[in-house]
Amino acid sequence: MTILGLGVDIVHLPRIAALISRRSADRFACRVLSPTEYGQWKQITRSAAPAEQIRFLGVRWCVKEASYKALYPLVKPTWKELTYHPLSNGQKPWLQFHPNNANNFEKVGQVHVSISHDGDYIYSSVLIEAPAST
């Protein structure tokens, strides 16, 4: 396994809360979420408490910041080219990279993500592998 990059990030949730209070939570979500995540966001806003909504946005912000750090300068992804998939049905969290430029897809192999949160903080690490040789 050849590692292309490792990125980490930490987010203080009150910062995310302040960002969305200055604008609207939906405007912030439109800016940073992929179409898949935005669909999840719309479902969450119907039933989840404000703290859960802030955590949802904070996790995705954190993971995407860490992934940008891991991919740069090889690839400079936009927010919407990355989709975070949380722990589900025993499958560990993962990050989907769906670049607008097909050439960028060939530059990136497997993407590994780890996320942790405690109180007002979210931490994420992203490891990017080189694509498998053909």
From TrEMBL:
Q: Which HAMAP family match?
A: AcpS
One GO term (biological process): fatty acid biosynthetic process
Q: Which UniProt keywords apply?
A: Fatty acid biosynthesis, Fatty acid metabolism, Lipid biosynthesis, Lipid metabolism, Magnesium, Metal-binding, Transferase
Q: Is the keyword Amino-acid biosynthesis assigned to this protein?
A: no
- Where does the source fall among the domains of life? Eukaryota
Q: What is this protein called?
A: 4'-phosphopantetheinyl transferase
| Record flagged with keyword Chaperone | no
One Pfam family matching this protein: ACPS
Q: Where are the transmembrane segments?
A: none
Report the residue ranges that make up the 4'-phosphopantetheinyl transferase domain in this protein: 5-112
- Organism name: Crepidotus variabilis
Matching NCBIfam families: acpS, pantethn_trn
Q: Which GO terms describe its molecular function?
A: holo-[acyl-carrier-protein] synthase activity; magnesium ion binding
